[in-house]
Amino acid sequence: MSGVPKISVLTPCLNGERYFKECLDSIQSQLYSDLEHIVADGGSDDGSLRLLKSYPQVRVISAPDRGIYDALNKALALASGEIIGILNCDDRYAPHVFSAVADAFRDNQVMAVAGEAISFRGLRLDAPIAENRYSPAGVSPLYMATLGTPSINAWFFRAAAFVRLGPFDSEFRIAGDREFLLRFALTDMPYLELRRVVCCYRVHSESMTFAGHERIWHSVLREHHRMTSTYLRKANVGGHARELLKLARTRDALNGAIYSARHGQIRAFVFHAMAGWRHDFIWPMRFIMRAARTLSASIRFRGAGAST
User: What is the homologous superfamily of the domain 7-202 according to CATH?
Assistant: First the structure.
C-alpha cells in the first residue's frame, strides 16, 4: 500500500449531544491528510444534528435504525477508506494516533491493528478520573472475544477484512463488537499490536457498555449466551476456540444465576442455569461451589461490620 491510506471513521449516534463535540474534535484534531468521518444518526431529537452542521467535513446520514450495529453497517456501506475505524459518539480518540495506525498498515499482510484503550470518568479528558487500561499485549483476539474485553474502538480494520467477514451482525444489540471480533479471530488473519492508547472510553450513566444497569447487564449475558451457543454448534470451530467459548459460557451463566438467585429472580435463574448446563454437564456443581463461596464471603463481611 503506497502513499497515505484513506481512513474512514464510523460513528453511530442517538441523542449524544452532551459528549459529541469532544468525539468530533478528537477526530478532526488528528490532522490526518486523507480522512473520512461518517456519522450514522438514528434519529436524534436533541441537539446532535444541529451540532453536526458546524462540522461540514463530516458526512451525516440520519434515519431510524435497529441499534448501534445496524447504524454502523449503514455507515460501512458508504465508507471509501482502505482502513476502517469505529468511534462511539460519547468516546474519543487519543491525540496523534492516525499516523501510527497508517504506518502499521504499510505491511500489506496486516488486516487489523489493535491499540490500547482506557476508560475514564469526567466531562473532559483533560481532567479525567481514570478507571481501567486495556491492552492487547499478549492477549489473543480469540481470548478478547470470549473471556476478555473487545475494546473494538481501539481497533482499526482493513476494509478488505469486512469484505471477507461481512458486516456486523445487527441482531446483536450490545455484543455485536464481540461477535465480529470472534469472527475475525477464527480466520487467523494477521494483525499488529499498537503499544499506545488509541481510544478513550467514557464511563457515564447512559453508556451501553459501562453503565452497569441491571437491565443492560442481563441483556449482555443473554447475547453472550446466544453468541456462544451459535459458535459451539459450528462444526468448524474446534480445539482452543471451543474451550474458550465453553469457559465464557460457564462464567456468564454462573454470574447470571448467582445474581438472579440472590435477587429472587426465578425465571432469570432458570434461564442462566439451563444455558450453563447445556454445554457444561458439571455446571450444577460449579454453581453450588460458587454459591457457597459467595455466601461465605457475605458472612465474613457482615461479621467484620458487626465487630467495628
Answer: Spore Coat Polysaccharide Biosynthesis Protein SpsA; Chain A (3.90.550.10)
